[in-house]
Design brief:
10 helices, elongated, mainly alpha, 231 residues
Length: 231
């Protein structure tokens, strides 16, 4: 099913998440991360957007961005196309590339320890982030706003990123890998098992996060009703 159009934001501000296709790594090293930030900076001059925050992880990136002149969809197409071209050339690959806040992901216990976020642009040297909008939410006084911002960013909270709530979905190939690990090298072998052994395999597969009954039925050829009855 194709994705519907992005809902128009009344404020013009969007939280964009770019994820690697099949959750693959899209930032192998710091050169890649630096290049992506350079791409964001470069297209600010063309698309005229404003950036209020970002966080670069290994297989995805979060961007808080405001649409100003050019549509945010066109701006993101420019950014992605430019980075993918550079990335593909560097790693000699072809095809599509794109499809937690580091403290939430247990990458670091202190946000200041993680280099690849806009946090450092707010408290140290500004590069691509338009910091005034964020600071003004705390205070019109720059010193007071900075102190309140640091305090806020280092407080424990129960906020969840959009992808924290995302449901895991395994691909058919990933499900087949699980089936192979159970000693079943192809579906015909599964079909030849006696019912008790077959049901044991189905029980194991149903317990795997991200596997659906519809998917198991499609892969194995076993009806959904039979799979659903297996407990």
């Amino acid at each position: 099913m194709s994705r519907g159009p992005r809902e128009k934001s009344n404020s013009g501000i969007y939280h964009i998440m770019l994820r690697g296709i099949n959750r693959q790594t899209i930032f192998e090293d710091n050169e890649d991360r630096t290049k992506f930030l350079e791409t964001l900076r470069s297209y600010k001059n063309i698309s005229k957007y404003q950036i209020y925050g970002y966080c670069i992880m290994d297989n995805h990136v979060h961007i808080l961005i405001k649409e100003v002149e050019e549509s945010i969809s066109m701006a993101m197409k420019r950014i992605c196309a430019s980075y993918v071209h550079w990335y593909s050339d560097k790693y000699e690959r072809c095809g599509h590339l794109f499809q937690e806040n580091p403290a939430k992901a247990n990458m670091t216990k202190n946000i200041i320890e993680y280099k690849w976020t806009s946090y450092h642009e707010y408290i140290r040297r500004t590069s691509i982030v338009d910091i005034d909008f964020g600071f003004n939410l705390f205070s019109m006084d720059k010193k007071k706003a900075t102190d309140l911002f640091i305090k806020f960013m280092n407080e424990n909270n129960k906020d969840k990123c959009l992808d924290d709530e995302e449901k895991v979905r395994l691909s058919d190939n990933e499900v087949m890998d699980y089936i192979n690990r159970l000693g079943i090298v192809n579906i015909s072998i599964l079909e030849q098992l006696d019912r008790d052994r077959r049901d044991e395999v189905i029980k194991i597969l149903k317990k795997i996060e991200g596997v659906t009954i519809r998917q198991l039925s499609r892969i194995t050829g076993i009806s959904k009703s039979v799979i659903d009855r297996v407990r």
